[in-house]
Amino acid sequence: MTARILGLETEYGVVVAPKPVGETPAPGRGAVPSVEEAVKLMFAVTPNAFRTTNHFLPNGGRLYVDIGSHPEYASAECVRLADLVANDRAGERFVQDLADTANATLLERGVPATIHIVRNNADSFGQTFGCHENYSASRATDFEHLVRGLTALLVTRPILTGCGDLVTDPDGSTRFVLSTRSEHIATTSSADPTKKRPLVNTKDEPLADRNRWRRLHVISGDSSMAETTTALKVGWTALVLDLIENGGRLDDLLPDDPVSAIRTVNRDITGRATFASVQGRRLSALDVQREILTRVLDRGVAVDDQTSWVVELVTRSLDAIADGDLDRVRTELDWVVTWRLLNRHRARTGAGLGDASSLRLVLAIRDLSSTAGLAGRLRAAGEMAAYCTPDQVQNARTTPPTTTRARVRGEFLDWAAEHGHRAAVDWGFVRLDAPIRPQIDLPDPFVSSSPEVAALRAELS
Amino acid sequence: MSQEQISRTSSRTPPHGGEPIEPPPVVASAQRLDSILDDISDVLETDALTFVQSYAQHGGQ
Q1: Whole-model pTM above 0.90?
Q2: For B57, which of A129, A231, A372 is closest by C-beta distance?
């Protein structure tokens, strides 16, 4: 796998749930907050807690409130999948920590409500929000060619990387779908992700030397609960990017109507539903994914441990889905975890997909709370696979990846806090505002040390 | 590079010390899921509809 900068930006959903009647404190205590008020309460503690501006964190990530009052965590710039997964999980814990602190405040105030953080991509009424993937790409590759090449992958990728969800149709019936986000995709590419959601956001914001890099911004994916699904989603997409950047072509696999095709794929867990390609062939998600895998392998990919892992899981997943034997990937693919748990619940209770308990179950799988959420229980029971060790995740809360500029930024923030200096940082620079010193730019995200920053630290330590 | 070469090096173990991938036997999996569902039966049975209907957001990106 070619070394490239990888990143994830995850928007979280917030539920302010009234407590059951029996748990409701005496009337007249505190009023149940709106989502906006709850998020404000959560973030009231952050400036002092992290001692940074803009909520950049010493672990290289960034925590903030995004459009629509969504808590959002942007991971540090990572090269290794293990670093990315651990850093993303660390962000998840940061957001839940904020909710835990806010819930303690609500309890003190006698407010009969609990804040839940949900790692999914749509609320109960179809409002959607994203989990965006970032991949550095060479300026030497024509961007239109890159997006066109990726379209076949992204339209059919939900058979591997979807989170598994329930959606209600206009007639009131409820169905299982592979991916939440795929239901909201309205075009192939666009620079406005809030009005017409595309597979790829075409904004040209490299956050690095723009003469050398472009930042490919994929916004069609789901937030993943299983670490293995996160690693698969990013690792598999990075391998296909390698193929395209090395001259490989996927044009013949391009759907004639990508928006219609992604819906077709999304509503079929067998992977066999077909759509028309631009060449008039009928193709299924399994057809396209298998053909892409063959081309990636035939073209030649660098053999390394993370590439081997991705290739094995893609191969095994496609075989398992084709054989209808989902047990072979039951712990590694998010949508399979969700599907199996839903089916077990229905078998035990007779509930329909549209029943409140089924809808609640899907939210519980993605609820970060240790008491109401299921992910921790699934991991502990061996029913949701890990990619990193718990120690790696814990370490990622305080330590940035060592192979990118996130290390310079994170260590700079730690140092400034330790010495009582006021730091201002962004993805591409660090600066001291008190005492005032010139800004130091970090245009190369692959560089994990800076002589200028080292000199500054030596001067003021 | 051939597919055969990749296959020989393919691994179910995540790089850098990830946990072993072999999941517990599938025969006991249903029992484990049942146990998890038992554990949160209150969550699923008590005010599930209220919770679901409380989940209303502004759209994001």
Answers
A1: yes
A2: A129
Residue in B9, B21, B59 closest to A385 by CB? B21
Q: Are strands A187-190 and A198-201 parallel, antiparallel or unpaired?
A: parallel
A172: which 2 tokens?
């009131």
Stated as kind and residue range, the H or E segment containing A66 is: strand A62-66
Please report where in the chains the tokens 């075989």 appear, as a residue: A319
ipTM of the complex: 0.89
Which tens digits make up the pLDDT trace of A162-172? 999 999 998 99
Residue A39 near residue A69, CB atoms below 8 Å:
yes
What does the alpha-carbon distance between residue A388 and residue A313 come to, in Å, rounded to a whole number? 16
Residue A315 has a CB neighbour count (10 Å cut-off) of 17
- Alpha-carbon span A173 to A150, nearest angstrom: 33
Most B CBs within 10 Å: which of A309, A311, A348, as the mutation test of the B interface? A309
Return all residues near A22 (Cβ < 8 A) that are at least 6 apart: none
Tokens of A254: 């391009």
State whether A231 and B61 contact (CB < 8 Å).
no
Sign of CA dihedral A276, A280, A282, A284: negative
Q: Name the residue type at position A258.
A: P
Strand positions, DSSP E, A249-392: 274-276, 282-284
Give the best residue of A308, A338, A365, A402 to mutate against chain B (max B CB count within 10 A).
Answer: A308
Q: Residue B33 and residue A341: Cα distance in Å, rounded?
A: 7
